[in-house]
Amino acid sequence: MDVAVVLIGLGVFLGVVRLIDAQALAAASSTRLIAVTFFAMLAFYWVYYLRYLGRTAGMAWIGLRLLNFDAELPDAVQRRNRALGSILSAASMGIGFAWAAADEQGLCWHDRMSKTFVAVEDPTAL
Predict the structure, then answer these.
(1) In angstroms, what CA-CA distances link 59 with 43, 53, 79?
(2) Which end of the chain is more exposed for a tag (fewer CB within 10 A), N or C?
């Protein structure tokens, strides 16, 4: 869901760019522009939602919340570290996310960096 939100935002951005200058996306460097814009928007999305709201729109939609390793709501520093760690996990071509498959506790890089994890908001609802 989170990537879908960013992709919709990217589509709107590219639509506006095309309306302003139709030739801008025809250039050979347009693929690079799209990739850089996507990752910049994704980084902003993660930093904004995690740092200031404590969870992303996708987490809220699915019914997940962010907790620290003491099972309490994380403080602002932990939320910021998680957002920055998520960017690092994605920038490493997703290795930071895939790390959960090898981790004993199923945690990603950004979980370890921020000492936070994602939990089901109402476990009895499952």
Answers:
(1) 16, 11, 14
(2) C
Determine the Cα–Cα distance for residues 26 and 56; give it in Å rounded to an integer. 33
Cβ–Cβ < 8 Å for 55, 49: yes
Distances (CA, A) of 15 to 9, 18, 22, 60: 10, 5, 9, 28
- Listed by start position, the domains of the chain span 2-121
φ and ψ at 104, to 5 degrees?
-55, -40
Residue ranges in the chain assigned as alpha helix (H): 2-20, 30-48, 57-62, 76-91, 95-98, 109-114
State how far the Cα of 47 lies from the Cα of 65, in Å rounded to an integer.
16
CA pair distance 8, 59, nearest whole angstrom: 17
Taking only the tens place, the pLDDT of each residue in 78-123 is 998 998 898 899 889 889 999 999 999 999 999 999 999 999 987 6
Radius of gyration, alpha carbons of the chain: 17
